[in-house]
Fold:
Amino acid sequence: MSKYSRSGGKYTGNHTTLIPAAQVACDIAYALAEVVKISPGFIKAGLKPVNGRRRVKFTDEGGNCIMLSVRDNASHQEVRVYVTDVQIARTAIARGARNAGIAVCFRKEI
Structure:
């Protein structure tokens, strides 16, 4: 398994490769007791560079799902995190991402 891949435990789905910024957020989420499942999405690579500015955008998808829209320098990935308590999980992941130097923003339901 490569350093950019995660599988087993709380990780589900066929896409287990994560971009570096998504790794940080997913590793924080994995350690939380409130997180039930983490489902990484497709990676969009080759985007216009943003000069190293990484960002995680949190969107509540209703119910017990938080979508993390993660932007790294030249790539983007969406990760869905299924939780038992949305508020606790969202706050913990956001704090961890900010401490790791990743910008955080929030969006209302889709």
